[in-house]
Amino acid sequence: MNRKLIRPDLVEHQERRRSSLTTPKYLQKRRAESAEQTSAEANYYLKQMANQTRMVIVLKDGDRIRGTIEWYDRGALKVHQQNGPNILLMKDSVKYMYKEEDERQREVERTRV
What we know:
Radius of gyration: 27 Å
Helix content: 25-40%
Strand order of the largest sheet: 4-3-2-1-5
Order of helices and strands: HHEEEEEH
Number of helices: 3
CATH class of the domain at 40-112: Mainly Beta
Structural class: alpha+beta
CATH topology of the domain at 40-112: SH3 type barrels
């Protein structure tokens, strides 16, 4: 079976290029932007919320907040504390967070040594 080699028509390509150069930027089609973030953060929060995992949240100023994450959105976390009021934290004030049980395990390992 003979196959024909199909080559793209360069005239069409040149016309498209010319039109894109003459068309104002705001009328040109934009490429699809890549996702701002993966869903890893959302999955992490959902897992901790479902398990009601006790968390330690370290703020940028050094304060530590202990509690469970009740809900989250793009810019905030709601943390339920056992010995205090619920707190609404803005995510940009959070330095990092970890599970409270990790802290206990480190203390147990230190006492062994």
